[in-house]
Amino acid sequence: MPDEKILLIEDEKNIVELLKYNLEKEGFRVSHVTRGDEALDAVLKVKPALVILDLMLPGLNGLEVCKILRANEKTARIPLVMLTAKSEETDKVLGLELGADDYVTKPFSPRELVARLRALLRRSREKPKQEVVKAGTLEVDFGKHVVTLKGKTVEMTSKEFDLLGALVNAQGRVLTRDFLLESVWGYDASIQIETRTIDMHIGQLRKKLKAEAERIVTVKNVGYRFDFEK
Ligand code: CA
Asked: How far, in Å, CA of 128 to CA of 158, rounded?
């Protein structure tokens, strides 16, 4: 989605330039501040779709900023990516515990970062419309993260659940393999995973869905869709 605003909180000039260049090239609008103690005001003012937050900052460090953003009702749900250096592994874990959605270790590949931001933005946009979606004897409960067939729980891996969830939420639209890679696997590494991984997971998912397996329809040379009509 073009024109989405990203707020960058980073004091290293080189990184700011690298990120601005790559993000603007991708159609994002980028605002930036260099100090941790300016972060909250900037987020409230810019109302970004996503925040990229460096760990080592003047004023307040990234962890403190993260805590403040998560504690404020107006900023608590904005997706947040932490930038950390290799030597800051423990802080990375702490950052995730404090509510960062993802982290990227410097030095990073801009392409990978953009892919991760996209996946994160997509996930934050595509909150399920309904808590429970039914199709035939199949029920997907997004609130409880449970799939049932004729009332019986189907054991699923989290990737299988996310994959089925993405298909169900698309409400019959065809989803390409690339889209599924980014929305389901984007967090791990959308670049390293091959598209046939999806086909493999779809195969497993169909096995588990038994009588309802046909609802996952292969659209030749494109991807998959979920059929509510069958
Ligand atoms: Ca820094």
From this structure: 16
